[in-house]
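User: Please run a holo structure prediction.
Assistant: Happy to. Please share the sequence and the ligand.
User: Here you go; the ligand is zinc ion.
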Amino acid sequence: MSELEKLLNGNRQWAGRVSSESPEFFPTLAKQQSPDYLWIGCADSRVPANEIVDMLPGDIFVHRNVSNLVLHGDMNCLSVVQYAVQVLKVKQIMVVGHYGCGGVKAALEDTPLGLIGNWLCHIRDVAAKHRSLLARCSCDDNLLDRLCELNVLEQTRNLCNTTMVQEAWRSGQQLEVTGLVYGLEDGLLQELNYSNSEPGGVEQRLEAAVTMLERRCA
Ligand code: ZN
């Protein structure tokens, strides 16, 4: 059986199982989606949004890219955020990084990687901004963990500063933005002490969250 045949077989089995357990599931979902969540995560195959939080199709609007970056010039990510905030009116956005992230690891190394090296430059910028904190990490594993966390915090900050999120907050729309990091080894999501639901204080909240991370340097 080819890889594609395996995939299509799996799909038929899944759709049949869901339909038999809940006959109205697909017809209801086909009419509309009204998710409360937007997940901005890494493209890594080990960090699938719905499975990790035990939610069904229809529950989470998802955007994933290499190392969960939220860049102010990335029309793809910004369009997803705009649709989620202005049309779907999600109540919670999570930027979800993960420990052992290959993109973050590659950003720490000097190996030339071609095109993706440009993308990873944004993580190198995060590392440069927080070089004094990272200098306190005594081993590579600790350094990688801290940069994975710092990257989530910086992307969460970027998200808070987008025009869509700022406008939503200024108009009184209920919306919380949070940074989370996922552990590949235990399957658990961890908070990083950075949540925001108002237009001001973005930088101060980031600084406070970074200060909390300093304790994890070893
Ligand atoms: Zn990753």
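Residues 42, 44, 67, 98, 101-103 surround zinc ion (CB under 6 Å).
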